[in-house]
Amino acid sequence: MHITMEPVIKSVTQTCSGQEVAVSLSQCSALVSACQSFGVEGYRVVDYTTNGFLSRYLPIQIPHTPMLVYRGQYLIPLVFRRGTGCEELWNQAPRREAFFLLLDWYLRYEPETIVTKYRLMDDEEGRFRLKILDSAWIAFRLQELIHCGCYQLKDCPSKEHFIQWNQESRLIQSPLIGRHSPVLDLENRKTVAECLLFFQILQLFFPEAPLCHELQLEKVG
């Protein structure tokens, strides 16, 4: 089934910009089936209150929002900003896999960036709490990595060339290092993990790209 995005018609607080789109409720079961191998266990429909990337950090409430249940701990809202590749995301297998790779990276290294709030749910065993993720931000960042990174670097010959390219593009930035520093801090575990994540995503789209075979990085100044 081809997953389609529908406009978000109404917000309870009337602050939607008209640029929000969501997966159709009638297609959620098909999407769950397509994403089960990544840890998706089902979906829920809930009223979604957020002040995250979706709403440009202004508070909005969207009723009847479909959300994927991920690994029994998280809710992934299926509502996004128009123009962030969200329809391609759910219809192209490489993008779907890349989305969950990126999501897992954020949960490990920057959970504060994507965990926006908690939601109490009920089932036969009682109440439990799920963390709601900023899926709109993840979709935007993935679009950035693909279009500003993968397509630019599919013919990149070496990790040294990648590091030099990144100094200008700032696709990946090292924490605690000045904006104009010539060094990508590859002694920082998080920075190395983000670079290797990018190589994984690159491989999904361009499996023959030379950078796909880089399994370790060394500091280059």
Blueprint (SSEs and pairs):
Elements: E1 5-7, E2 20-23, H1 28-35, E3 40-50, E4 60-70, E5 74-77, E6 79-81, H2 86-91, H3 93-109, H4 111-114, E7 115-123, E8 126-133, H5 135-153, H6 159-169, H7 189-205
Parallel strand pairs: 5-8
Antiparallel strand pairs: 1-2, 2-6, 3-4, 4-5, 7-8
Order of helices and strands: EEHEEEEHHHEEHHH
> Roughly how many Å apart are the termini?
48 Å
Mean pLDDT: 86
Strand adjacency order, main sheet: 3-4-5-8-7
Percent helix? 25-40%
Number of helices: 7
Assign an overall shape: globular
Alpha-carbon Rg, integer? 19 Å
Low-confidence stretches are none
How would you describe this protein?
By secondary structure, this protein is an alpha+beta fold. It has 7 helices and 8 strands, in the order ββαββββαααββααα. Helix 3 (93-109) packs across helix 5, helix 3 (93-109) runs antiparallel to helix 7 and helix 5 packs across helix 7. The radius of gyration is 19 Å and the shape is globular.
